[in-house]
Amino acid sequence: MLKKSMNELIEIINNNLDGIIKSSPLNTKLEESMQYSLDAGGKRIRPVLVLLTLEVLNENYKKGLQIALALEMIHTYSLIHDDLPAMDNDDFRRGKLTNHKVYGEWKAILAGDALLTKAFELIANDKNLEAETKVKVISRLAHDSGNLGMVGGQTLDMDSENTPIELHTLEQIHKAKTGALLKFSILSAADIANVNDETLNTLDCFSEHLGLMFQIKDDLLDVYGDEKKLGKKVGSDVENHKSTYVSLLGKSGAEEKLKYHKDAAIDAVNQLKSQYDVEPLLEIVDLFYSRDH
Hints:
Elements: H1 6-17, H2 30-38, H3 45-56, H4 65-82, E1 92-93, E2 96-97, H5 99-103, H6 105-124, H7 131-145, H8 150-159, H9 167-177, H10 179-193, H11 197-224, H12 227-230, H13 236-239, H14 245-270, H15 279-290
Antiparallel strand pairs: 1-2
Helix pairs in contact: 1-3, 2-6, 3-4, 3-10, 3-15, 4-6, 7-10, 8-9, 10-11, 11-14, 11-15, 14-15
């Protein structure tokens, strides 16, 4: 089986997201608002990780396509809500006006709600997966996007504004807020491939370090990044009085922590080298480490 490159997988994801939200007889423009944020672009790193991990595990990426699309819907809903005035109060996302700036706050909230529920509909209706696998994946996604995952992490993040916190609390925030869905990206592919417990635990360890890498790099870019490349203003964490890896450890300390998690992620994934071609996952580690947006 000829495997797809990362760019090919991004194109597949974008093509399938294009027009995925159909108009409804209710005529409310809710669907237009949902599609607007899906069309805003981005790195598509979470859905790509689903498909890429499947290929590493010698499975056809098509088995995970609906899950990948559902995951991007949940990620997009979280961004719509994060940008709201009650949270981060951002005017731009990925170089475009945020959803509430175009459609108003109440419709942005409902667009996010609708994307969340649409995601589970996609997986439930997926004809490529056995019922048992779908239940496992839906359960994992509900956990990782809910009060013990992304939403819980966002709550702890909001509670921690204007409050000095320790590094342990910051890591708790990011393991849940950012890391949970990144972990889902990889472990949902492991669910589909029905890997053994040893492989699952190795991928779990790998994905945890990957998630922390992603957030530490985000914290560095929020202070030292290029606004044109980021598509949004830098310094929002400082404005919102949030503790970050940079504010707690300084630039060099944050960079050291980033390298620590990079090395740990590489060590974890290299444990699978005797069974699988892990080069695509090593490329992801390098991408997370060196990205500038």
